Batch of 2 targets.
Target 1
Amino acid sequence: MARKLPRKDVVIIGLGWTGSIMAYELADAGLDVIAIERGPWRNTATDYPPGYAADELRYRIRHELFLSPGQTTFTFRNKMSEAALPIRSWGAFMPPNGVGGGGVHWNAETWRFLPSDFVLKTHLTERYGAGFLPGDMTIQDWGVTYDELEPHYDRFEYLCGTSGQAGNIKGTIMEGGNPFEGPRSRAYPNPPQDQPFGHTLFGKAARELGYKPFPQPSGNMSRPYQNPLGVRLGPCTYCGFCEWFGCGNYSKASPQTTVLPALVRKPNFTARDNSEVTRINIDSSGKRATGVTFVDASGDEWEQPADLVVLSAYTIFNVQLLLLSGIGKAYDPAANTGVVGRNFTHQTISDVVSFFDPEKFVFNPFIASGAIGMCIDEFNGDNFDHGPHGFVGGGYVGQVQTNGRPIETTPVPPGTPLWGAAWKKAVKDNYQSAIKPGTGVHGSMYSYRDVYVDLDPTYKDRFNRPLVRITMDFHDNEIKQNKFLTDKFAEIFQAMGARQVHKEYRKAPYDITKYQTTHLCGGAIMGTDPGTSALNRYLQSWDVPNLFVLGASAFPQNAGYNPTGTVAALAYWAADAIRSKYLKNPGQLINA
Amino acid sequence: MHRAAQIALVILTLAAGIGEATSAGSQDFAAVERGRYLANAADCGSCHTVPGSDHPLSGGRPIETPFGTLVAPNITSDRETGIGAWSDDEFDAAVRTGMRRDGKRLYPAMPFPYFARMTREDIKDIRAYLETVEPVHNPVKVNQLPFPLNQRMAMTVWDKLYFTPGEFMERSDKSKQWNRGAYLVEGPGHCGACHTPKTALGGDKSDKRFQGYTLQGWVAPDITSGQGPLADWSADDLAQYLKTGHNRFAAAAGLMGEVVELSTSKLSDDDTKAMAAYLKDQSGPKPAADSSADSHVMAAGGAIYQDLCAACHKSDGTGVPNLIPNLSHAATVNTGDPTTVLRVILQGAQSVATDKEPTGPAMPAFGWQLNDAQVAAVATYVRNHWGKAPPVSEDEAKKERTALDARTN
């Protein structure tokens, strides 16, 4: 029997980027806010200090910052006809854990989606005709436009101190920036980071091939910065330990380095860590959330009543809590009914590993940051005519080499033995003169009728709740897209003067053991029709109006960019809707 | 039920009536406001509130002195364990002359030699404010000094040697701002209580005002201007530090972090500027240069510095303004006593977060990673590479490690 705590105005589930942003915005509006986080509290200096933050074995190989599969995991299968089995060790993606969530260990690649990404179905249908899309593709428009989100993208970039070169300010194309980006209201708060040699060379080669290369927008600081909340970040040291790692130098934008110091000063904010929300409670009408139930580290169960519930956990946990709490109709791919669990997507990533003459090229690959590099956007979204190619979607490609870490980033030419003296010699010979971009080809993955999540019929978690079951495979459209992008990417390395270029295409079937990105999307998507979306355009549940669900779970399909910028912009967008509309008249904001 | 409430109301009224007999202050908004400001300026909370306690000013915090530990008493208006039953005269006598209600003398851990510079009106207003704080029943065993120091008679002699009664007198040859700063620094702010060297009996060395002292495991550095470690600080730098805990050189941590959090960050900008103006006018000697550091130790320390420290403090020690302290200008680094440097290397430090500088950056501990010789080497390097502070021995590092292991704060 859960013990009941005093009522709060707002309960927030998960204290990562979206939870922190929403907590700040709602506490700032005067509401009494509590955030409940499954993992531990994390502080920059004490939890990932520079003295050991750069420990590849501890963080990358042994996954210290991530959820333990012993705490909870997922089951996986490629096809609906298969039996799903539990994931015992993280592979294709890394579920975050702890205060700051994925915002602690991300690379800080801070992108905006293209204006056409938000109206994808309409845009592609108008340009190519409905028959051009695969029959089982279930892409949708988002219900929100780029122009509506622009001020919120801007807020996040200024919160983070994003380093970058604007490509389009209010419709004027800026030299050196991304000419394909949607118009932005102002430049990035900080200039781009300095580019290492290999990245510079890529930019030069891309330019010579007729492309418009630009530095990747980065939440790694190019100089000291104080954000609008008064919180300060320091300059990046280019140590190359961003992805999988917390930054002990106050140099990478994270909730800890941007929002939390200001948030914890607010007397109407409380955080509760090491506590796992097990369900969202709904009243007898089924139309109103009454709060949440959670279990603390002692195993004691508590009920936290609240007027407003914000679900802001990692993508797949958002979907799980909705399914377990009976909110919204579960998706059934056979009948093609229901909304919770549908349009689940991931990413289509591949790489080109290039080997150069060590006598002529010394790249010093260890000089790096999480989001450093030169990219081109010619093959992203619908920036090019897909007509001749027979697929839709795309991605940016770039020499975004984020590290030269000794365990994982030791590229050797194909054919080298996997261990022993010959392998060691090959590592030594190639270490300084090879290029292995972290996110070389960063491609979209569109949604399909048979890619989804639901509750597993067999396996249970430690609370005896069903695990989430992932059913996912690549479809021909994504395989074609990836081959096209990978080939284009390889041409640039050839132009740089590589003597050997090794293309690592993404191939079907989808492999749960091979890392791609942590960019799981969808499952509780936003949209304009309650029949095909779980949330309205303000990320408000169609079924339970006092519940808002933040995060990439709202993406109807994945675009060809890293999601955090859009995830955060949507959080600000939802916060703005709550502050300016919902609080004045609590109820359904959209009549459908 | 209704009757019980009525009785409670009568008792409350009676209690309030007794309070009124001693002081009208708590009825007076202006007096309470002024008293709150002065209580902040006097930093009553640092000693009289246990950090993290929900019961401000109810005492119980141990105060280390060179002679042993004293515990700050309860100064809420609880009648039995606080100051609720005291008359205004008794309160004034305690704060400004160190004379207890029972006629015995207070130890100077209570900085009455400084508070003597305040006026009777100031003290009355502080009292008025204290009456608005929730009374807490908290008996505190104040005196935990060993015999014979626990005998308060000796304080009569001490007072004769070190205590000069008398309110602050303005100097007509100085500006209004200087005089306001002098009042705050010499009176309620009691800066010298930590920053002025002490005699063997714990009295201020009046000829060495503000030239630095070490207490409770932290160096309170030389804060004179002109030639001391703060020579490069402008008055604005100093005011910004007091107001926010941070500036282009330094970040307040440890005891000074508490002072900023509970006291100086709550003062008006005019007052922190006035304090800065006064302190900038305090001359002090140039620190003695010491170039005796061994070149091998410096080489080892430099290597450790580049590996472990340079990522934040930068290779040239200049740090990041308002975020990472500038070691080449740090008063607690370039000073005779290495206590703070060793402590921060071994244990790390959390700097203060304030409304104007909410970041509150921290430095991690390195004691788990470096042995005593390595700690001494890197400490010697940061003290001797940019400045010329004396080298630190392995033995000093070892002693500081042992001392920190024994500390509970």
Note: The longest strand of chain B covers residues 62-65.
Target 2
Amino acid sequence: MRNAYISTLYDLAKADKRILALVADNGAIVYDQFCRDFPEQFLNFGISEANMISVAAGLASCGKIPFAYTISNFITMRPFEQVRNDVCLQRMNVKLVGIGAGFIYSNLGPTHHSVEDIALMRSLPEMIIFSPADPLEARKATFAAAGHFGPVYIRLSAGGTPDIYTEDYDFRVGCAVTLRKGRDVSIVATGGIIYEVLKAVEKLEDLGVSVRLINMHTIKPIDKETILRAAFETKAILTVEEHTIYGGLGSAVSEVVLEEAKIPICFKRLGLKGVFPSGYGSYNEMKEINGLSKEDIIRESKTLIEDKKSLK
Amino acid sequence: MKAKPIDLEKKAEELRKVVFKTICLSGGGHIAGSLSIIEILEVLYNGILRISPKEPMASERDRFILSKGHAGVSLYAILADCGFFPKEELDRFGKAGSILGGHPDMHKVPGIEASTGSLGHGFCFGTGIALAGKLDKKDFRVFVLLGDGECQEGSIWETAMFAPQHKLDNLVAIIDYNKIQALDRLDKIVSLEPLAAKWTAFGWEVKEVDGHNVTQLQEVLGCVPFVKGKPSLIIAHTIKGKGISFMENVAIWHYRMPNHEELKIACKDLNLEDLQDEP
């Protein structure tokens, strides 16, 4: 996903001199080609995220389109007030790009696990949030961010994220993608974790369960229509996110269901439940330790389908 | 055209009255910190800044950013005086439906370049504008007025390192060094000293002036950048609450409003007709 983002930014910068790549001592060699070919469009701020965001806002006030990139905690959380006051309040055309969302930086520990970023960015007026599931979608989200005037947060997993999409498709801002049609239960997921969800869905299908899988690549504005259709047609929704269940995707989906569906459905949010990420190990081990493995998704889906039987 | 110092002093006196009246009649604001920057604004807006109220968004204009946004009333007063909006708007300061609030809003007030209020932001934002000017090879300048207490924010020092790195000689920072923050003197809380040496060490060219002396301010602001290829810093030594006897250099006046008796004294000090203390 990281390489897809940077190569897309390269293409954008080539076509439009207003596009600037801003980094905070992060990105290393993946920006090499960019730096070589567009030195005037690349700025390394060193380790000073607050300054990077405010300067980005100032640059945007003069017509530049800065893409500010660093580890997702450090682009959303550390300079949160700069994002709020200088970017959103002043309605500046600044893009925030956070790399390593969720548990991707597995053994680096909880300081590097980005599990509140969606909640933070969702709380800000003007902010649009893209959370792509694979490299192709990261590329499309980057183009969409450049084409949208105003603040955008792109939440990326790291390099080496497996492909979800096998062919090109029409990425539309705020329109979720239904990856599997199904009727027993709907799973709404976002970002790199979708690869894990897909493995769970395949297993469930082997067991004869019909799963609807929705990829919510735009978390804000959220696709109400797709959520409501899932609520009416499957009566059971499981949300899956590499993030706290408070204020993230699950919260966003539940708000739509509770306020607008006005029917009884079974609902469950899978994610971190009021705890910091725990454990060290590989990315896969982190998902297991923190309740986001294929098995967890299968178990929760089955429970929801059982619960559904008691709905009137 | 450069205004005569004697005229500017007179204008500053008038502006001081307008600021005091505007805050007192609205019932709230930062009087003392607004009064310490009057001469700086007078000089900037009368002969230094290349701006026009007829074309407030001209791309080649100089920019002024009040990073210590709580002194917004002084900025409103000078902008109204320059014709960016009608002076009558000042009478509605802080009231429902007004464009003028306790902190400046760039989307509401003509002539305001950045919405400031939270300290440590306007300076970095202004640095971004200066950087854009360099990238686009434009010759506008960016002037940012900082509070001294504001210099305790970490983001100030992030930009203090960044601007010299990028040779932003189109950036001019002015510190309103009145030496008092909300609760006490800076040197009793977190001292900035040695202030000039710190900025010099960071790569800025520094000059110090009496921030109430219009001749000195004209001189120093008229010769920026001090050194080609370096950002300029002006340490303006000022008096918080300047012009009001009991307010000068007294920390409690950071936000406090005068009572009936104090109001009378202040009006006398400013040579202003009595104000009613209830708006």
Note: The mean pLDDT of chain B is 96.
